[in-house]
Design brief:
Helix content: 40-55%
Largest sheet: 5 strands, mixed
Oligomer: single chain
Strand content: 15-25%
Radius of gyration: 20 Å
Number of helices: 7
Strand order of the largest sheet: 1-5-2-3-4
Distance between the termini: 61 Å
Length: 205
């Protein structure tokens, strides 16, 4: 009986240790390259019946003021592609870092597109609490979820242009706010239009 208990204890200890050593995959992409990246990451399919469910933690570089409209357009189109192409067994989380650090979307079904898009549109209001380090937070989530039955990946979405423009706007005065607002709307429209051919070609593939 003692030998049985000892063997059981050793096996449990080994299982815990090996579970803790499961690596977390890290990938990095800039916001402007996110759409082709989303296609590539979701197009990699394993024909084996033993394919493990994926948990993608989307770590978005975000200024304190939040994302601008153009960034949201790109993120939404990219996440729609991910949602469409990922397996029904896969899941997504959205975490932000840099100026704004927190969880905008807890682990959610990959097909729950409404929740995903809502989180992108309302990053700050979706966060129940703010943290000091969004990157550390993302890896904690990944490590907690990594197991023999799930592969966890942190996808770091870098957005340096937005942070740079935010820093400049905080220094420069704003005498032409109305004109600038009009330009922003035109820029967003042009961005959406230029994305259409890329999205169509992606869907065809």
């Amino acid at each position: 009986m003692k030998n049985v208990l000892l063997t059981t204890a050793v096996l449990f200890f080994c299982h815990v240790n090996f579970g803790q050593e499961i690596p977390v995959v890290t990938q990095s992409v800039t916001l402007k390259n996110l759409i082709p990246f989303a296609v590539n990451i979701s197009a990699v399919k394993d024909d084996s019946s033993k394919q493990l469910p994926k948990h993608l933690i989307l770590l978005i570089q975000t200024p304190t003021s939040g994302l601008d409209t153009e960034s949201k357009v790109i993120l939404k189109q990219s996440f729609k592609l991910l949602s469409d192409r990922l397996s029904v067994n896969d899941s997504l989380s959205i975490v932000t870092y840099a100026g704004l650090n927190g969880i905008a979307l807890k682990k959610s079904h990959s097909k729950n597109i409404k929740a995903i898009l809502y989180a992108v549109e309302h990053l700050q209001s979706n966060m129940k609490e703010f943290h000091n380090d969004g990157i550390e937070l993302a890896y904690k989530l990944a490590e907690q979820d990594a197991s023999d039955h799930t592969t966890s990946s942190v996808v770091m979405i870098r957005n340096p242009e937005t942070l740079a423009s935010t820093a400049v706007s905080n220094v420069v005065s704003k005498p032409n706010d109305l004109a600038n607002e009009s330009k922003k709307k035109n820029t967003v429209l042009l961005t959406a239009i230029t994305l259409i051919p890329q999205i169509i070609s992606v869907i065809k593939d």
